[in-house]
Amino acid sequence: MIAIENLVKQYGRFTAVDGVSLEVPPGEIHGFLGPNGAGKTTTLRMIAGLLKPTGGRVLVNGHDIATEPELAKQSLGFIPDRPFIYEKLTGGEFLRFHGGLYGLGEPEIGDRVREMLELFELSRWEHELVESFSHGMKQRLVMCAAFLHRPRAVVVDEPMVGLDPRGARLIKDVFRRMAERGVAILMSTHTLEVAQEMCDRISIILKGQIIARGTVPEIRAMGDGHDDHLTAVFLKLTGGSGLQEIDEVVG
Amino acid sequence: MNVRAFPYLLLPHLWASRNRARRRERGDFARGVLFGGIALIVFAALVQGSYWLTGHLLDYEELGDYLLRIGLSWLFLTFLSFLAFSGIVTALSTFFLADDLRLLVASPVATRRLFHARFFRTVVQASWMVVIFVVPILIGIGWARCAGPRFYLTAVATVVPFAVIPVAAGTVVTLLLVNTFPARRARDILMLMGLLFAASLVVVLRFIRPEQLLRVESLPDLTDFFATLQSPITPLLPSFWAGETLFASLAGGADVTHAAALWTTALASVVLVGAANERWYFSGYSRSQEAPKARFTHFRALDSVARALPLSTVRRQLLVKDLKIFLRDVSQWSQLLLLMALVLLYLYNFSVLDLQRIPYMSGYIKNVYAFVNLGMAGFVMATVAVRFVFPAVSSEGSAFWIIRTSPLSLRDFLWSKFWTGLVPVLALTEMLTVAANQFLGIDPLLKAMSAIAIVLMSFALVGLATGLGARYPRFGADPSQAAGSYGGVAFMVQAVLFIIVIIALVGWPSSVYLLHQMRRAPFTPAQQLLMPVSLLAAVGVSLFVWLASMRSGVRALEGMG
User: Fold this and answer.
1) B110 closest CB neighbour out of A70, A86, A88
2) Same domain? B281 vs B366
3) Which of A148, B251, B384, B413 is spaced 20 to 30 Å from B457 by Cα?
4) Domain residues for B395?
C-alpha cells in the first residue's frame, strides 16, 4: 500500500507539490495524470525517497519513508522516467547487482534474474552490455529490476515511453498480473488511453494540487458527457489549447 | 533481508572496468603505449631526481639529514593542500552529482553503507595522482639511503592515513556547501575557487621572485634561511607527522607517536564525517536534485556584435550558439582563465629578465630564444586546440540531430566550427609571441617571421583539431574528456610533429640569416636557393595540413551512418 498525506514540496518560493494526499491500496492500479510541470514526477520522487518533502508524510506498506527509509524502500519498486543503468555492465550483471541491493540471497538471485529476463523477453541479451540495448530494451530491463525483489508496491513514471506495441502490451499484462497478486501500483502517464484501459482509479494533478479523483467512469462523468475518451475531460480540467489557437499558429 | 557490506556497492565499477578491458576499443593499444611510455618516463625521472638529491644531501651529514627531514615535511605539506581541495571537488561528484546515486539512493541501502562506499571511492579518486607522485619520490629516497623493506612498509602505512585525513576534511566542506547551495551551483563556486587558488599560487610564486635567490648578494644568512624553511611546518599538521614517521624509519628507527597520531586522526575523521553524513546527507542530496534556478547572462552584447559581423544567418546563429554555451559553462572557460594566468606569468618572466646583464646572452642566442618561444606558443596552441577545438563536434552531443536534419551542409557546419576556433587561438598565441619577442628584443625580421609562422600554425593546428574532432567524435562523453580519447591523442602526436617540422623549416633559414648578419659573410648559392624553398615548404605543409584535415573531417561527417 502507498499512502501520502498532505505532501508538500517547495523550491524556494515555488510550490511544486501543494498538499497532495493519496492512497493506493493493495491490488489497485492508480493512474496519476496531469500536464507537464504539474508536480507528478516530484511527487513520485518523494515517494521513492529521492527528494525530501518540505511537509507531509509518505508511507510505503506502513513504513514511513522519512523514519524507516530502508524498510519502506525494501518493499517498493521504483521505475523512474529517466532511469540510470550502468552502461558497461551486461543486463544480467545489472540485475544481479540490483537484486543484491535489495537483499536477495546469492542462490535466489540467479533463478530470479533468469525468470525476470524471460518474462520481459530479454533472455537473449543477458550477457550483452547495456550500452548496446535499444531504448525499449532498457525500459524493459528497468522493469525487470523493479520487480526482481517482489515489491508489494510499485511507483512508475511514464512506463510506456519508447516501447513498441508488443512491449507495451507486455508491460500492461505484467502490471495487471502484479495487481491481481496484491501489488499496489501508482503510475504516472500522459497516455490517456493507457490510463483508461489499465487504471482502477485516477488522480489528476494540476499546479501541485489534486483537482480530480475517481474511477474512470467517475472521471469521465466530469466532462460534458458526449465523449467516451478521457482526453476531453483532461483538457477541460487542466486547460488546453483551443482549436482556434492552433489554427492561428498553423496559419 | 540479506545486508551486504559496503564494498558490494563498488562492484559495478569493478565489473565495468573488467568489461571495458575485455572489449577493447579502437586505438586502446596505441593510447596505452603512449600514455604508459610517458608515465614510465616521468616515474623514472622522479625516482632518479629524488635519488640524486638525497645522495647529494648525504654528503652534508647532519645538515643533509636536517634538510631531508624538512624536505619530507614540505613534500607532504604540498600534497596536503592539494588533497584537501581535490577531496572537496571529488566528494561533490561522488556523493551528490554521480548518476548512479539515483539508483542507489532509491534502493534500501543504509546511509552509512553508502557513505563508506562513496568515501572509499572519494579517497581513491582524490589521491591517486598524489600517490603516483609520492611513490617514485619515496623509492628514490629509500634507494639513496639503502633503506630496507621496513621503510617501504612504513611508507604505505603512512601514505594511507595521510590521504584519508584531508579528503575527510574536504568531504565535510562539501557536505556544508551542498547544504548551503544547490550542488550544481556549488560546483561552479568550486571551479572558480580552484581557479583562484591556482592563479594566486602562480602570482605568489612570481612575486617571491625566485631569480633573486641566484644572486649571491641577496642570499639571507643561514639562520634566516632555515627559519624561513621551517616556518610553515607546524607539528599539528598531518604532513609533519608523515614526514617525521618516514624520516625515523629511514634512520632505522620507528616514530610510533607520529604514526599513531596519523592513524587515530584518520580513523576519528572517518567516524566524524560518517556521523555528519548520516545527519545531513539526504537533505544535501535532495537539494542537489533540485534544478538550479536559471541564473545566466543573456549576452545581448554578443548578439549585437554577431549581427554586425559579415556572416550568413546560419553561420551567425551557429557562432552565437557555440559562444553562449561556452560562456555559460563555468567548467569550460575557467580552464581558459587558468591558461591565461600562466601565459601572463610567462610574459612577465620575459619582461623581468634583464638580458643585458647576462654576459652569455649574446645576440645570436637571444634570437634563438625566438624559436624556443615559437615552440612554446605552438604547444600552447596545441593544448588549447585539443581542449577546446577538438571537442567542437562532440560537444553537439545528443543535439547533433538538429544539425543533421537541418538544411545546413555538414561542410558549412564544420567550417563554422573552424572559424569559431581559429579566431581566439590565433589571437592568444599571436599576442603571446609578439609580446615575448618584444620583451626579448630580437631582430625585427625574426619578429615578423615568428608572427607569420604563428598564423600558419594556427590555421593548420585548428584545422587538424577540427578535422580529427569530426573523424573521432564522442557524442555521448563529456567534451572535456575528449582530449584523452584516441582522436585527442592522435591530434597531440600529429600536432607535436607538425610544430617540430615548422620550427625546423622556419628556423634553418632564419639561423643562416642571423649568422650572415653577425659575420657579414655572403650567402652561398645553395643557401640562396634553399632558404626560400624551406620557407615555402613551411607554408605548403601548413596549407596541406589545414585543408586536408578539414576535407577529411567533412567526409567523415558526411559518411556518418
Assistant:
1) A70
2) no
3) B413
4) 359-558
